[in-house]
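can u do me a favor
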């Protein structure tokens, strides 16, 4: 559709007839992201509250459709890239974020650790180094004062505020570790997401666990078994062995659903539930 035709459609968005507006909305949404700059220009040029509200609604629907599409494609073709999955979730709340900022911060963290990394270091020494870089120098920590805040699930906000929940901190920690060829992966422990350092000579065996929410505290098998016993759950592979990236993204979405429920934002809760249903 030509630009003049799109502008003509947008100019009619203040029509009080609900049926006419619905037809306009449907048509503009089918145009996809390329119509967003024209919608934004219309919003800026108008003082009509009705038109501005409708423009905001259409832009959000277009962007939400993009997030749904991106998430489905990620599940089908790109599950190995955890960061891309996290950035897709980020686009739900921050569609205009310059994602290069996230890549740059993670690259800086990797570089800081790499500078001190030595080949002969033991696994515990490598974890001590990562803890020092991420928690002491960079300042990451668990958001204990606002644990249920939605921002704890968005990687850009966690890197910006340096506060997050167990899974967001674990994602950052494991992404940096894996980029340094350190075999640290996510463990989908009920009620608490942790990490596992896998044996380099046998990648299917856990060497020890890492509680990232507690500043990288090292945990042994017996700590995990005792925790599961408290929950009356078996020590099954689902809880004690690394999970895949799809399971991590699902858990991030579940955390986000709970967070929006906690702050009584039912509209966002339902939208994130739709995202989860797409890949569950």
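np, heres the sequence
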């Amino acid at each position: 559709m030509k630009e003049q035709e799109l502008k003509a459609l947008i100019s009619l968005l203040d029509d009080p007839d609900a049926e006419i507006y619905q037809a306009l909305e449907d048509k503009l949404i089918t145009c996809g992201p390329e119509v967003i700059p024209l919608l934004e220009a219309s919003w800026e040029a108008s003082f009509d509250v009705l038109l501005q509200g409708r423009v905001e609604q259409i832009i959000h629907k277009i962007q939400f459709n993009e997030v749904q599409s991106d998430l489905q494609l990620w599940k089908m073709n790109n599950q190995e890239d955890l960061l891309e999955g996290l950035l897709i979730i980020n686009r739900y709340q921050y569609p205009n974020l310059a994602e290069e900022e996230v890549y740059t911060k993670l690259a800086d963290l990797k570089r800081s650790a790499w500078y001190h990394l030595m080949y002969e270091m033991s696994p515990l020494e490598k974890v001590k180094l990562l803890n020092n870089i991420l928690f002491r120098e960079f300042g990451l920590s668990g958001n204990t004062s606002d644990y249920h805040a939605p921002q704890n699930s968005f990687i850009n906000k966690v890197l910006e505020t340096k506060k997050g929940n167990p899974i967001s901190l674990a994602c950052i920690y494991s992404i940096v570790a894996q980029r340094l060829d350190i075999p640290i992966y996510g463990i989908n422990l009920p009620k608490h997401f942790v990490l596992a350092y896998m044996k380099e000579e046998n990648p299917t065996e856990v060497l020890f666990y890492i509680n990232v929410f507690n500043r990288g505290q090292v945990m042994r098998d017996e700590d995990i078994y005792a925790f599961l016993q408290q929950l009356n759950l078996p020590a099954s592979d689902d809880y004690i062995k690394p999970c895949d990236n799809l399971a991590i993204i699902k858990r991030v979405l579940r955390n986000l659903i709970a967070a929006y429920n906690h702050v009584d934002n039912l509209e966002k809760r339902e939208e994130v539930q739709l995202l989860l249903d797409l890949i569950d």
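Residues 82-279 form one domain. hope that helps!!
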